[in-house]
Structures are given as structure tokens and as C-alpha cells.
Write a structure and sequence with these properties.
- The complex is a heterodimer of chains A (106) and B (122).
- In chain A, strands 2, 4, 5, 6, 9, 10 and 11 form a 7-stranded mixed sheet that branches.
- Chain A is mainly beta and 106 residues long.
- Chain A has no helices and 11 strands.
- In chain A, strand 4 and strand 5 form a beta hairpin.
- Chain A has strands at residues 4-7, 10-13, 19-25, 33-38, 45-49, 53-54, 62-67, 70-75, 85-90, 96-97, 101-105.
- Chain A is 0% helix and 50% strand.
- Chain B is mostly beta strands and 122 residues long.
- In chain B, strand 9 and strand 10 form a beta hairpin.
- The chains are: A mainly beta (106), B mainly beta (122).
- Chain A binds chain B through residues 1, 31-32, 34, 36, 42-46, 49-50, 55, 87, 89, 91-92, 94-100, and chain B through 37, 46-49, 52, 60, 62-64, 96, 98, 101, 103-110, 112-115.
Chain lengths: 106, 122
Amino acid sequence: DIQMTQSPSSLSASVGDRVTITCRASESISTYLNWYQQKPGKAPKALIYAASNLQSGVPSRFIGSGSGTDFTLTITSLQPEDFATYFCQQSSDTATFGQGTKVEIK
Amino acid sequence: QVQLQESGPGLVKPSQTLSLTCTVSGGSISSGSYYWSWIRQPAGKGLEFLGRIYISGSTDYNPSLNSRVTMSIDKSKNQFSLRLTSVTAADTAVYYCARTRMYSFGTVFDNWGQGTLVTVSS
């Protein structure tokens, strides 16, 4: 099965910062890569699908890129509501998730 | 606005069977554009895909569950269900149901239930 590895596992940032999270697949998954945001006590919410496509209603400050095995999620200007945990997920072979990246307030 | 809601016992004894149902409202479960999935998350940990079912009844399960999982769908009730047998404490988690949208050759979990905590304990 395909393993997904995210880095870092956590980061501290300030409002207005540019934040980048990376996700690596154990084998090529083309662009079958999704990103989710999860806040404490809530279900995850889809942000980006197919590596770079914004889910409906998601702000344009969230940018996804990559293909093959290496992917990134960039938040161009961190907002207070963006402090959360982010997960990548491959859909090339059913589904597996990365372990998550917690974005905390500096 | 499609909504999903999990229901079922919050406490299951070890070695018994965990059974959950997801009720879909505001839309038809029979739409051909979606799978219907179960995902779980132990406290403080990551997300684990358990499996998915299509309206035809075809399923894809996570092989790590070693045939303990079964999913079914009831189009007349707009519901789909999860059964997990021989549970242990390691199965304690928040269980989510999720609508799974198909695009080209990929899928995305685009609509989630709020989740339900299932604790395995005697």
C-alpha cells in the first residue's frame, strides 16, 4: 500500500506568515493528492483535490502543487482561522492519509 | 445541502461487533457520482480509511483490517453501514462517515459527518 509522509509534524507561525507543508508518497501517485484541514473536535474539511484544485468555498490563499511523489500545500498569508491540523491523502489506490501537520500560533 | 450523520452505540465490549449507520439527508445516496466511506481517528492520532461502498454494493476495504470489516448500503433509507467484528481497545476511535466524490481517476472526501466516538471497553 502507498505510504504518505508529511513534514513538518508541527510548526509555529504568525498571522500573515507564508506557510508551506510538504507531503511525500512512497510511490508515484500522479496528481491524486488531496489536502484537508481539521480543527479540534471537528471533522476534516477538504481544501484541495487533485493536487492543485481548490475545493468550492475555500479561500484562494490555499495553494496546492506537485505531482508524482512530492507535493506542497502553501498558505500565502496565514489567518487566525487557519490554525489547525492539515492532512494530505492519496487517492491513487483507495486512500491513505499523511500523519498530519499541526499549525500553531507563534 | 447534503448532510451526513453517524449513529450507533458509543460503547462496545472487546471481542464484540461494532455497528454504525450513516444517514444521508438533503440528497440521494443513489447518485452515481459518489462512493460512501468510513474513516476513523483514534484520539490525538491520524486518519485511517476503513473502506467505501458504491450504490451497486461493490466495496473496497482497507486490507489492514483483515476481513473484520463489512459495509452495506440501504438505498430505500438513504443510509450506509459499517460492521467491524472482533473489536479490541485498538479500535477505540472517532468514526466518521464521508461522501466520496469521484473526479477523473481520483476521489476526494468532500462531505463528512460530525463523527461519533466509539469506545471498546468491558
